[in-house]
Each structure stands twice: as structure tokens, then as C-alpha cells.
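pipeline/complex-builder :: batch 7 item 3
reading input block
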Amino acid sequence: MKDKIKLTEYSKTSGCAAKMSPQALSRVLHQVDFKSGDERLLVGLDKSDDAIAYQFSDDKILIQSVDFFTPIVDDPYLFGQIAATNALSDIYAMGGRPLLAMNVVGFRTCLGEKVLAEILQGGADKVAEAGAIIAGGHTIQDDEPKYGLSVTGVIEEGKLLTNSEAQAGDFLILTKPLGMGVVATAIKGGLITNIKDHPAVKAMRTLNNKAVAPMQKIGVNACTDVTGFGLLGHLWEMAKGSDVEIEIFSSELPIFADALEYAEMGMIPEGAYSNKKHLEDKVTFIGEIKQNIVDILFDPQTSGGLLISVAGDKVADLLIELYALGIDDATVIGRVRGHGAKIKVSY
Amino acid sequence: MKELDVRGMICPKPVIETKKALEKSDKLLVLLDDQVAKDNVMKLAKKLNCQVTLLEDGNEYQLTIKKTDMVVEKQDESGGKVYFISTDTLGKGEEELGYALMKGFVSTLLEINPLPAKIIFINSGVKIPTLNQQAQEHLQQLVEQGVEVVSCGACLNYYGLTEKLEVGSITNMYEIVESLNTGEVVSL
């Protein structure tokens, strides 16, 4: 019998760890004149947000995002599901709902058409679950397989959630545990056998859609999704965009049970090191925080949870709603303390 | 020592290969060409309670990974010190007196609590485990009680004493520097 194809062997980095480093990207973007001076563009390049937002009518805002990456698991169907879940997440992080999606595919023909069909099926199933439609796509020949979506969403006027409106006094809620990059590295290293049922893989395949309705109902100040830049990277974008000081309670962080162990063993993706390099001077660690927790804080997440900044008098209501919808991992992980972009990690 | 070349391998393969190799051998030289892989392999070694020494040359790294046995771990817990002995006579003054004092010093090391974690002989210090017969006997007793006794290989070579080493093992500068860096050091 032919050996089963191991998709991850064709990629150097996997999942959101495959993101270009934030410093390098920022250097490049500064060299380009994007000529984007349209006032209907509510959220654009300058905001480092999850998606762009464009006011296309008086009462509706268009949200557009694209996200694709290299295989994070060997199973093509699972990879398709994870990549699509991750791409759709940007729309949810803005508080919107996805309408249309297009496949973005790089594929090595020798892997066989069946493998590609399974990847696309995984994506299609997630898009259908999200209530959106796959309307087309583009596929190129590529030695390193890649898959993701370009997603178009919509949101009503006044409901747009950005990562730049966190307010002093807010509580921060994270809706999925951390450690996906470390677990993905352990999967790549062959240390995890039952991949499909691993809690991190389940979380990566879980849409962030359910949290949107409670966020809109109760009203939150800011939201983003935690992906390639790690928790601290996305917190930094929130702290910088909102000009606030954020404190993270490291002992409260939800982390996949085995991820701490794998982190100690050196199953740390390269992206964690580049995230650390980029963020080191922006984060203050107070007291003795265990190295494996520090590593998890920089760990690039794939299809991570939503990071929500909500006012103190609403936090309990929001948690109750999130739990009622089965988002059991939602946890208060920190607080917005005051002004001046800064991150503190305390015990 | 077994050599493991993980150059050109993509993470986490270097970690996995090192882990596998350490299941088979107690001491390993790992060749790497990637900083992330190096950092990750060092984490693994630490997690497995191994002693690690790093030799760095641009983007090339050599890690010497040594499993530490139970005895050494026990000493670490008891807070034994590292004795760095770079002379064959103790103190300044008449050589004869210094020689006798060194004998006395080594024999007294047997009496202290906690025992030393490690005794490192360097430069003319290597004459003690090779030429000083009474000290040799005491050192042997220390080794039997779990104290690590090591002598600088290059120094033994220089004084033509390599063949005469009766007690303990030969070490290199990387291991010496690593020991000085990790333990509480008494220098003579």
C-alpha cells in the first residue's frame, strides 16, 4: 500500500507560524505608497486590524479579509477546515458575519487531486457552517502547499468592532486556550498520535462565530482574534491602537494541558522566537513567571480565540452568555489599566 | 562520543532526533546550523536534566549534551560547590609547604558537608591527580562518594601527564566554563 501523504512535510513552517515577521512586514509596507485616502475606508492598512472595513452604504459596512497558510496537520480535510476557520475568524473579530468566500490555493500536483479535493472539502464545510458561500477561487502550482480564503463579510452601521477602542477599566476575555503553535510543532514532531481529537486541533476547527451575537448584544469596546503574532503580539496591537496599558494575569491563562510540557521540551515554533524578538521591549514581566508560560505567551496561534475588551459592569453578563453558547474556555485573562501603550505580565 | 548532525533539518526535527539519540547514549555531540533549533534542543536537554555545553561559531553550533546521573543531581540539591584548582601548591610561599598544604586541603574536602559537587584541576593543578599520591587516594574516595573530579585535557597534555591520570576524568574548556557558570565556585 502507498504510504499516506504527510502534508506537513512539505512545509517549513506551519499554520499562522508561517506569517512573515511583523518587523519585516512593517519595513516593507513603509516603502509602498498605497494611495488609500478614501474616507469610506474605516479600517485600513494603518490600523493593523484583522480585516479592512469599508462603508459602502449608509447603513452597511463591508468587511474584507484574506488569510492562507501552509499545512499544520497531515490530514488534508482537517487542514482545510482549520485554514477556513482561521480565515473566517477575521470577520468575526470585527463583529461581522461572512457572506462570500474564495479559495486561495497553492498546490503540488504530484500530491494527487484527491488530496486537494479533501482540503477544499474541509474548507467548504466550514464556510457552509458559517452560513457563507464559496463563490470561486484561484489555484496555482506550488511546491509548498497552501490554503486559505479571501472572505467578504458585512456588518450593520455602528456595530463594527476594532482592536483600537479598548478602554481603561476594561476586562480582557480570551475564548480559546493558548498553545496551538507548540501543539502543532509537537504534531509535526510525531509526539501526538490522535491528532483529530486533540483539544487544540478541535479548537482550531471551531468557528469563532458564536461569540459575535453576545458581543453585539451586550456591547464590547474592542475585539481581535489571536493568531500568528501570539497573545502578546495581538495584545500589543490592541494596546498600541487603543493607547492603553494592559495587564495580563499569567496564572489565569487558559492553556492546552500538554502544551506547557511540550514547550519545556523545546517544541517551540520559529514564529514564537520572532514574536519575542519583536515584542521584548514592549512587555514587562513582573516577578518570576515560568519560562514555559512565557514561551506560550509568544507562541503563534492558528485559528486562535477572540480577545475581547469589555467594560467591568458587562463582563459577567458576557461570560454568562458565552458559557450558555458552549464557549466553555472563555476566561478573564487581564485588565486594561490606564493610558500609554504598554503590556505588563503579572503572576 | 556519539555525534548527531541535524544541520539542514527543519524544526522540530532536530529536537526529535536529539531526543531519540539521548535514549540510546548518555553523551552526545549535536551539530546544528539554526538558532531556533539550537535554543529548542537546549530546552530539551534542560528538561531531561542533562548538562549542556555550547560551542558557537557564527551560524554553526555544537552542543555537548551529557546525561547527569542521580549522584550529581543529589549534590546539586545539597548545594555542593565547584572547586576550581589551578595550582599544585596551596597558597603563596615555599613550594614544599604549599605541596603539603594542598594534600591536607584535598583530604579535608572529604570531611565537609555538603561534599563538593565538582573538583576541576587546571594548569599545574593537574599535577595533583597525577603526581600527588596521597591526594590521589583522597580524590578517589571523593569520586566514590559521587564527587565529579575532572582534569583539563590540554594541561595534562602540556605537562606530559595524560598517561598518569589515576583518578577522575578528562575535561575540556567548554565543560569547565559551563561548570563555573552554573555552580557556586571556590577558586584556588
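note: The mean pLDDT of chain A is 92.
queue -> next item
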